[in-house]
Amino acid sequence: MAATSVTVIGLGPMGQAMAGTYLDKGYEVTVWNRTPGKADELVARGASRAGTVEAALNANDLVVLSLTDYTAVYAILEQAPAALAGRTVANLTSDTPARAREAAEWITARGAVQITGGVQVPPPGIGTPEALTYYSGPKEAIEAHRTALEVLTGIDYLGEDPGLAALYYQIGIDMFWTGLVGYLHGQAVAQANGISAQEFLPHAIKTMDFRYFLEFYAPRIDADDHQGDVDNLAMGMASVEHVLHTAQASGVDGSLPAAILDLFRRAIAADHGRDSLTSLTKIFKL
Ligand code: NDP
Hints:
Blueprint: E1 5-9, H1 13-24, E2 28-32, H2 40-44, E3 48-49, H3 53-59, E4 62-65, H4 70-77, E5 88-91, H5 97-108, E6 113-119, E7 132-136, H6 139-144, H7 146-152, E8 154-159, H8 164-192, H9 197-207, H10 211-222, H11 233-249, H12 255-272, H13 280-284
Parallel strand pairs: 1-2, 1-4, 2-3, 4-5, 5-6, 7-8
Antiparallel strand pairs: 6-7
Bound molecules: NADPH dihydro-nicotinamide-adenine-dinucleotide phosphate (NDP).
InterPro entries: 6-PGluconate_DH-like_C_sf, 6PGD_dom2, 6PGDH_NADP-bd, HIBADH-related, HIBADH-related_NP60_sf, NAD(P)-bd_dom_sf, RedAm-like_C
Keywords: Oxidoreductase
Domain 6-phosphogluconate dehydrogenase NADP-binding: 6-152
């Protein structure tokens, strides 16, 4: 097995980008996908199509998994558990930290090592110098495969706990989904008022540049300091009410601002009306 050879299992948009990047870098790439036709283009570019999961695992020491979730991971690996022995499985499938830890144990029990990964860029970012992936798991396994992993993205190593990469990934994605859905809701209000997404874009870019707020609030969150010296929830609630009414008057669904309003109301009912928005971090914790 050449040092520059790898197996990629899972050929959704992400796995396609990964296998394609390895081919571009001159790697020998073996691929397997539940729906075999998704490998056709990669095979035409020089990848080897494994006929079975067993053949895909046997082909290389390093096996990259890029699947929808860990249910898919088990559905595939359970087809050839004996072939896992001696392999390093770079599991770049996203799921919960608990499932990442369970899978690491399951894979270890079959004589292999799991490196957990959480990719921080969309498929076109694979193979670009600024892209990063959260990794956790045995450091020596990551070091042994550093060169091959760095073909995909840079390595943001978090520690030995196999759940850590999944945890960091999920925290980031928590922020990503809520932030981006807010952007789409605002664009829907803009469109409903005859303002195109492109027209509003420069304003959205300015509004969504949260860096100042992120940096200002982080030390206060850590210090449990929620003083309402620069903002307070009572003022915030009035503002969100205006957002809700503007959306509704524009014929746009108001459930997103209504959910925020509900959170603000709960925080105010818990006596945080004069406190900063950061006191929501207390309300969120059940
Ligand atoms: P997809 O959901 O498109 O990946 C689908 C892959 O999983 C396909 O190969 C599919 O096989 C396979 N699969 C799903 N269920 C099963 C199953 N039960 N048995 C066997 N195979 C199964 O995801 P992406 O390619 O977009 O992403 C892959 C991973 O990367 C995900 O965990 C995602 O969260 C993560 N990620 C994705 C990003 C993105 O922008 N796309 C960004 C960062 C991370 P088949 O082709 O047969 O359906």
